[in-house]
Every structure is written in structure tokens, then in C-alpha cells.
Amino acid sequence: LKSRVVKTLAQKKEYKKEEDRARNRTRINVGTAFERWRTLRDLNGFKSDAELATFLLER
After folding, report:
1. Taking the complete model, does pTM exceed 0.85, yes or no?
2. How far is residue 52's CA from residue 42's CA, in Å, rounded to a whole number?
3. What is the DSSP letter of 7?
4. How far apart are CA 31 and CA 16, in angstroms?
């Protein structure tokens, strides 16, 4: 049997903060163009924002 590790609320909060920091390093803000971005992504059949961004950068 595996022993269960119990984390304190402070540990959980710190873990979430670190995860948020890591995610924020890869984010960009398209601002008012958000709706256009989603439409372009959907019309071209891309499953993720990363796929669309890569496609546009490689053109």
C-alpha cells in the first residue's frame, strides 16, 4: 500500500502559485483580437492555440 502524503493549505497554495507562474511564462495577450483569433483557429481546424500560432509563425 502507498502511504498518502497530506499537504497543508500553505503547501497547496504555494504549489498553485508556482504552477500559475510557469503557465504565465508561455501566455500572450491578443487583446481585442481574441474573437478573430478564435474564429481563425476554428475555421482552419486547429485544435489548439499553439497549433495556430506555430502555423502563422512558419508562413
Report:
1. no
2. 9
3. P
4. 25
Per-residue pLDDT reduced to its tens digit, 16-32:
999 999 999 989 999 99
Place of cell 502555423: 55
Q: Does residue 15 contact residue 27 with C-beta atoms inside 8 Å?
A: no
Amino acid at the residue 3 = S
The backbone torsions φ and ψ at residue 9, rounded to the nearest 5 degrees and listed phi first, read -60, -40
Task: State the cell numbers at 45.
Answer: 481546424
Q: Phi/psi at 29 (nearest 5 deg)? A: -115, 115
Instruction: Output the nine-digit C-alpha cell for 10.
Output: 500553505
Could you tell me the three cell numbers for 41? 483557429
Distance set, CA 56 to CA 14, 28, 42, 50 (Å): 36, 14, 14, 10
